[in-house]
Amino acid sequence: MKAEIRLSAHEAASAAAIQRAIDGLGSAGGRVILPAIELLLDRGLELRSGVELVGQGGQTVLRKAPGRVYPLSGYHNYGMMDAPLLFTEGLEPGMTVAIRDDRHGGFFETFARITWVENGWVGVDCGLHSDYHDDLHPVLVTAFPLIYGLEVHDVAVRGLTLDGNRGEQPEGIGGCRGAAVYFLKSRGLTVEDVQESGFLGEGLGFQMSSQVTIRDCRFANNAGNGFHPGAGSTAATFERCVGDGNDAAGFFFCVRANHITVRDCTFTNNRACGISVGTRDSFNRIERCRAEENAGPGILFRDCRRPVEVEAVQVRDCRIIANAWESGRAQVDILGDAHNLALTGNTIIGRDEPQRAGIFIAPAATHIWLNGNTIEGCSPEVIALEGALAAQAPELACGAEAAQPIHARHLPGYQETT
Domain residues for 99? Predict the structure, then answer.
């Protein structure tokens, strides 16, 4: 039986104390159980392999501390495990931070933990991911995921309420390097009953990860996407989740997110769209979901061209209602060179104003199978060139249920897991 650490409110009085409990489990892993608390986090909680972090649902509230910005004192170069700052007051070892300049975001942004502070310099636990240029306003910011794991396996997060404290953050962290809950190059991940809102960035994101289960979670009112499986992630299941009121999409399939199932989820009132599918996002299944009242399309297949087009995606038994009030051609937009898509059994209902089509299929899209969809209040119901629609249903092996080990061979650690 794995070890279990049940913390009292006194023992969980700081992020550093919780981190010590997590680290204290050692390589064998185990469970850390948090009490009913409201705690301000001055650093992210880093999960180790085999660790389960459990709270008391709405009674365990972890809130991000107000953020601060520390300008670098000049240019600093790739690979260095330190950075020069104009001032360092308030920084201490163990805190988590992000480093970037005006040009270098995405995976060129550095997320790291401070290892030392001395004479206007800070040390960090990884090499900088880019050169940072003094004429591009390089900064270190106290922006970080509230809970994260880097190159971990078999971890779980359950029963937590997370507050990104967005109004107190002068700078956020980009979706490639962070989110309120974030994993990188990991496998065997479970996130259940996590309620999060107000992060200056993405809600939940994982990059280059596989064997993921997300259930009964809500990620809302974030500056980026609500949910963001990215960078080749595969074999992931999302069930009974909600993405509401986010500044971008409720759910965003990023580059080469494949063999993913999104089931019984709801995406409403998001600024960009309900669900966004794009570059090489293939063999995915979206079923029994609701996409309603989003500013853009309920479901958007982004404008991607061969050889990185969208293909082999199923959308079935969904309710796609009253979207595209600000942008988009239809309740469902299928753009670019998308092909071999199947939309079946969906209920698609438009708005009175502005009135959009039910389904828009771009001129280059082909082999789109439409069957058994109910379309109401849309004008016209379908926009498509002759020949764009498939004459018969495509044979598609989609979703996490169809994932095989070989589908993760593009990810780090593949040889170790097969």
Answer: 69-141
